[in-house]
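Troubleshooting: if your tokenizer reports a length mismatch, compare your output against this known-good record of 667 residues.
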Amino acid sequence: MALVSKVSTGMRRMLLGQPFRSDRLNRTLLPKRIALPVFASDAMSSVAYAPEEIFLVLSVAGVSAYVMAPWIGAAVAVVLLVVVASYRQNVHAYPSGGGDYEVVTTNLGPNAGLTVASALLVDYVLTVAVSIAAAMSNIGSVVPFVAEHKVGLAVTAIVLLTAINLRGIRESRTAFALPTYAFMIGMLAMLGWGFIQIYLLGDELRAESADFEMRAEYGDIASFALVFLVARAFSSGCAALTGVEAISNGVPAFRKPKARNAATTLALLGGTAIVLFSGMVLLAVDTGVKVAQRPAEQLIGAPADYQQKTLLAQLADAVFHNFAPGLYLIITVTALILVLAANTAFNGFPVLGSILAQDRYLPRQLHTRGDRLAFSNGIVFLALAAIAFLVAFDAEVSALIQLYIVGVFISFTLSQFAMVRHWNRLLRAEEDPAERRRVIRSRVINTVGLIATGTVLLVVMVTKFLSGAWIAIAAMSVLFVIMKAVNRHYNRVSRELTPGPDQRGEIVLPSRNHAVVLVSSMQLPTLRALAYARATRPDVLEALTVNVDDAETRALTAEWEDSEVNVALKVVASPYREVTGPVVDYIKRISREAPRTVVTVFIPEYVVGHWWEGLLHNQSALRLKTRLLFIPNVMMTSVPWQLSSSDRVTQVEDHSAPGDVRRGFTE
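Known-good structure output:
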């Protein structure tokens, strides 16, 4: 078993590297230039798929509905601006990093806080799934092999991303800065060069699908259905808002002054995302891009073997029509940012899980940092959940996006409502006129944010519930119930283990100690267990064996009587040749007859040096321990006997620590 431990440790070191000391945690704080790509990658990368979702939804009504795309894009940009301005108030008011969970719990109560936490946890999982699926779709637009093996490659990408994050905070965050900036620069270059060609040089840029005709999926759409369709396209485009909350959750990771740096980064995030999102929508209209939910049925004039490319791939192909490296550069940086955009979730999910674990709503293992100062358990759980969604929905962005936005706007809306109550509470206690004006201004901003996000949430619920949003809501409900149950369990255990006022400092000692040494043969491990049991000076000491074979039992009793051991050997019958049951029944009988007597069971065990030896020894001891754990007033003592094979793992290398020489610990 020791060898297994050494192999396991060696594999962990090879994959994760050497562990970090706890005092290195402060060295991982981020400057704004690194924090922007780390926390904003999700929000900025969503422009790679959010505009396409608008056009996909509008395609149901035919190409004539595309004229509404710029107006829908403008509405999404306005909501994004409002949300960014609102969350800047959150960052200044609550710089501790709890984000929406802390804000809502403090101002609306624990149940509302758990609702937000459930929504955020599900949203983080879907962030990973949607980002990776979109990355595979974009790569598949230029590499057919990727399109054919999208699910397997998506799962591989998540595994690699998990490994990077498990290696530690500094490595993962620095690794994401360069690709994010490359994506921003590449997108701005594509949009800028595209608009220069159209509006300054007078060139006519045409996407490869511009000459196709589009058949309305349901024919002419009535006015009410058209309003519903526009609302659904707007809600799909609001995927561009995902990730805005990541900075408010990660304020502690910023360098000082934390709140100001986080607010500045949030403003940069919002401005960049609005420019990229709006530019893509306008360029798509100018180049005549057509994307359809069912291209084989809706697109007329397309070749028989036509494989629909993503909107972004079509735009890059149109802008860089005479420069193929430009297309591949845009696809490359887009794929990188989409894969790495999941890093926002890999930063946010484990931190939120740690906070919830600290508040006793999730298992305590999620609160513990791993060897590399990362919340390893949360990272692994997030990866497994995201992989499950990817496999279940075949890595299709349009299918996953239906589940995606509802959780975001639940947390947005409750957070803004909580901030309004926060400012109201401060106004009741504030008397300084200048400070009151500042608070009133912040309250107005959050009130506008509440109205905007609440409206979008209503639209999302109405337009997407039957399309898949109900799955996300069901997952949030299950998480909410689980967290309440975990909290009840931890609180019940705490009440049970906490001594009352009359119990404090008062430990009731048992009246007697009844020692039982388990015996299977007259060998050295048994003699050591007997000697150790005698050294504890019990009130009663007896040896116990189970009769599973009459001949062996008679031989043991005869050898026992001939020996110099002056401890009584009791034999328990076992008609069905079982060892565990008769021993447990005997121990229970002692406990029933003397309730204030503690029974100490001494179990001889072998210490082995090979993993396969562990399979050949100590199995009865393990079963006994498992059963005896549930009997009150019973203690178990393992008495080890080291076999010769264990000698090879007992040599411990000397490791000197800093200061050992000065303290005289080394020669």
